[in-house]
Amino acid sequence: MTTGADDTEADPRTTRSRRRLLDAAATLLESGGPEAVTIEAVTRLSKVARTTLYRHFASARQLRAATLERLLPPAIETAPPAGLREGLITSLVRQAAIIDEAPLHMSILAWLATADRDSGADGAAANSLRARLIEQYRAPFDRVLETAEAQARLGDFDRTRALAQLLGPVVFAKLVGLETTTPQDCARLVDDFLTARDAERERERRSSAS
């Protein structure tokens, strides 16, 4: 008999088995990284049968994505400081500290960077994790970029692209083992971003006027 989604959610045995699987996967992830989260290792550690695991997760990749997503902390909730530049610098400094102090973020980014994109269940799980990670990173910046000053100076632009321009160098520095990104580094990144956006808007104005 096929169990519907509502029945699955209501069955405490199903909830317990899923929790045990994710607890075991989290333990393996923290000790050995995403590649340590295999079907064999998770079923052995959780003492949950392989057939039960496959009722929850179609593949090891889907299990890894669910585990990584479960471990993500909530987005930072802060009020934007006064001023566009100051707000962006403050947000970038805080996110740089998270990246420097949380190896999990680097594991997620490295895993997502090497994971194949597809439209199946595995792809949906990875895309859900990717969306959660982007949302966590961009939430503090959105509060700054939604201000009247930001709208007036920056105009209409792709916020995800802006996030990549600001955070990309911080993430790259961490991945390749460079020195910790300092507040001074963050200030330079913000100034470079604002200067580039000012130049881009000036080119847009000239193009529309010609």
Describe the overall structure.
This protein is 76% helix and 0% strand. The chain has 210 residues and is an all-alpha fold. Helix 5 (60-71) packs parallel to helix 8.
Briefly characterize the structure.
The protein has 210 residues and is an all-alpha fold. Helix content is 76%, strand content 0%. The chain has helices at 5-10, 12-32, 39-46, 50-56, 60-71, 84-101, 103-114, 121-145, 148-154, 159-175, 183-209.
* Count, helices: 11
Structural class: mainly alpha
- According to DSSP, the number of beta strands is 0
Order of helices and strands: HHHHHHHHHHH
The overall number of domains is 2
* Beta strand %: under 5%
> What is the top-level CATH class of the largest domain?
Mainly Alpha
At CATH level 2, the architecture of the largest domain is Orthogonal Bundle
Structural key phrases:
Tetracycline Repressor, domain 2; Arc Repressor Mutant, subunit A; mainly alpha; 210 residues; disordered N terminus; 76% helix; 2 domains; single chain
Layout of strands and helices, then pairs:
Blueprint: H1 5-10, H2 12-32, H3 39-46, H4 50-56, H5 60-71, H6 84-101, H7 103-114, H8 121-145, H9 148-154, H10 159-175, H11 183-209
Helix pairs in contact: 2-3, 2-5, 5-8, 6-8, 6-10, 6-11, 10-11
